Structure formats: C-alpha cells, structure tokens
Amino acid sequence: MCFLMLVPSALLFLFPRQSNGPADRSSREEGAPPECYQAERRGPTFVHEPPRRVDFSNSTGATVACAATGSPEPRISWTAADGSPVEDVRGLRYARPNGSLVLPPFRAEDYRQDVHATVYRCAASNPVGAVVSRDVHVRAGGPQHELFASMIRHDGCARRGGVEEFV
C-alpha cells in the first residue's frame, strides 16, 4: 500500500516496510506505525545542455535542444541574456514541450536581431532546485545573399546598411 502526502512544495510517497518477522508484527500490534521511506528527490541536472554557439541560415532554421532530469521531473524554460522569459514569436521562435527552442526557417524581411542574433539560456527547475545553462549565442547568417536577396531592387541595385551597391 502506498500513501501520498502533500506538503508545500513537495510530493512524498510513503510505503510501509515489509514485515521481517515476529518483532515487526509485535510492534504493529502495539499500535506503532509501520516504518516508511520517502521517495528520492533530486534537483535538476542537464542530460543535454545546449551548445555555446548556434549558427544557422534563414533557409534552414535551427532547433536548440535542452533536456534535464530530476525528481520530480523538471520544467524547462528559456530566458534571454537579461533573464527575462523568452516568449513565442509567431512564425519566428517557439519552445517545444520537450524543452527545445525552435527558430524555424524565415523570410529575409522577417529577420529580427532580438530573435535571430542574440543570447539565450535554458533553465530547468523543480521544487528541489534549478540549473541554468551556459549562454547560447544564436546567429542567423550564412551567405549574405540568403538574408539580403529580398532587398534587391528592380533597378539592379541592392541596399545593404543604407549604402547602395550595384549587383
């Protein structure tokens, strides 16, 4: 038989100890409660910590994996370099339930520095503790023609950084 006990910020499973003979039986007969043990609780540790750097192109996108173990199971979240929570940005960034941060392929004109060239951190937490990953520097780049192709004007000039260049 298992008993579940809820304590603020903890979940304990208590199991009666198996009887080892007459001594155990006599103590129970005298009204003593059976001896129990507590399920092991562990703070989170990374199973897969994200890399320090993720370079990708707008045509491929990127998935940054983050996974942790602990008891109870940790919750994975992503933060920006300043510690603020990373929110989903429709079509540009979202977190999967498995803890991965996804930066899907995007059109050059949808590039955002705060999404595609920034620093993220993965955090794993449970009631026992928390861990935070190293900084993950992401950068959308690759051949310049991928990001700037949509900026080519019909007259054969390209505008990059406010300077017109002939193509």
From TrEMBL:
Residues 1-21 form the signal peptide. Keywords: Signal. InterPro entries: Ig-like_dom, Ig-like_dom_sf, Ig-like_fold, Ig_I-set. Residues 44-133 form the Ig-like domain. The keyword Transcription does not apply. SUPFAM superfamilies: Immunoglobulin (SSF48726). It comes from the Eukaryota. Pfam families: I-set. This is Ig-like domain-containing protein. It comes from Haemaphysalis longicornis.
